Every structure is written in structure tokens, then in C-alpha cells.
Amino acid sequence: MNLTDRVAVITGGAGGIGSALARRFVAEGAAAVVLADLDADATRAVAEQIGPVAHAVGLDVTDEAQVHALVDETERRYGRIDLFCANAGVATGGGVEAPDADWDRAWRVNVLAHVYTARAVLPAMLRRGSGYLLFTCSAAGLLTAVGDAPYTATKHAAVGFADWLAITYRDAGIRVSALCPQGVDTPMLADGLAAGHLGARVIAASGAVLTPDQVADATIAGLAEERFLILPHPEVAGYARRRAEDPDGWQAGLRKLVRKLRA
């Protein structure tokens, strides 16, 4: 996909990867970028910084009615949605003992929000015979977020759902990509480090933390090639192969890293 003259929607647009994508889309010549986030004030501030091409909307991605309203409003305002980036996500830092409320929120934000997106945008895209869905799924969806069971489980589900959509709708003109970065310098990582979450410490110890702008650059390249898996950290592909070929050895390596960090 070439972003020139395209209309894009980005959830989780108040900062981090979402705002970096918005800036890069505008630089690529997008006709309009709609930023949506639960933090409406921060989203408006980002849109104002970007300029008149950007439009801000307050949105709770776990509310399907709000997602449909966002899609309807955008289609009325701009005539179509060429690219919808379901980028909002949450981490918990918890294991099996995480309360049900944390599991439920992770499920609703990291998975059901993608389902709501697909339900809302697919009818018009299918009528046109074109459209693009970009889901921010995280490398945790291909590997494991050590120390965060809800994040790991829901990001795997997100990748699985994106894969299903790609198989089901590609021949109808719909493109789907799963964006799977590893460590990114975002508030989510900073909050995890401040709370002492094991997963955030593993990411920081890896020495492979990218900026949101670097993730946006990789995303543009992936969209241009219409790749299903967009991996800002290329090494993730090798990790995934190792995990598939030798799951016991892969788990042993991670256990060793965890023991080192805990010591």
C-alpha cells in the first residue's frame, strides 16, 4: 500500500507507536489521519501538532458501538477508510494469579477490539473490493511475554485472528498485516519498568529497544510490500523459527534468562 491520498484510522493514537504512525502517514502524503484514543485530550494535542490533515476522536476500543460510530463518522467525513490500524493495547505484568478483571481487559483491548474493528470496516471495504487492516500484535504474539500471561495469551490470539482474516479475505481485495515489534520505547514499557514487571526487565536487558519512529519506518516498508508479518526487530523471525524447531531448547533459554534477572 502506498499512503499517498489514503484515509487512515489509528487507535491508541495518543502517543507511542500510534502517534508515530500518524506522523509518518502524513509525511507519506495521507489525505487524512483519524487518531482515536481513550485519552481524548492527549489525542487532540497530537492531532494539533500534526496539522489539519489529522482529526482526533475520543474512543474506548472495548465498546463496539463506539468503534462502529468511529467508522461511520470517518466514512461520512472522508468517504472511505483505506487503512485501519488497530493499535491500542494493554499489558498487565501478571501471571495466572492476575485478577479476572485484568484478564478480561487484556482480552477486550488486545483481541475483541480487533474483532470489533473488522466487523465495522469490512462491509464497506468488501463492497469496494479494497482495504487494509493493520493489527499491532507484538512479538509476544509469536513468542512469549515473560512475566505477563494475559498479554502473551491475548497477543497470540490477535495474531491468530489476523491470520484468519488474511486467509479469508485476501482474494476479496482485503490486505491484513500483523505488526509485531519487540521492545519499543513507549509509556507501556516505561510503566512496566517502573512497576518492576519481569517482562519489561527482559526487554530492557535485551538491548534491542526501538523508538516508535523506527517502528513506524518498518511499518511503512511492510505496508508497501503488503507483508503479513511486519517485524521491526528482524531477529524475531529467527527467534520464532528456533521456537518452532526446538520448543524445549527455546523455553530452557528463557528460563535461564529469567533466573539471571531474578538473581
Automatic annotation (TrEMBL):
Molecular-function annotations in GO: oxidoreductase activity
Enzyme Commission identifier(s): 1.-.-.-
Top-rank taxon, per record: Bacteria
PROSITE patterns on file: ADH_SHORT
Enzyme class: oxidoreductase
Pfam family, one: adh_short
Keywords from the UniProt entry: Oxidoreductase
Domain Ketoreductase: from-to ranges: 6-184
The family this protein is said to belong to: Belongs to the short-chain dehydrogenases/reductases (SDR) family.
Protein name: Dehydrogenase
Organism annotation: Micromonospora sicca
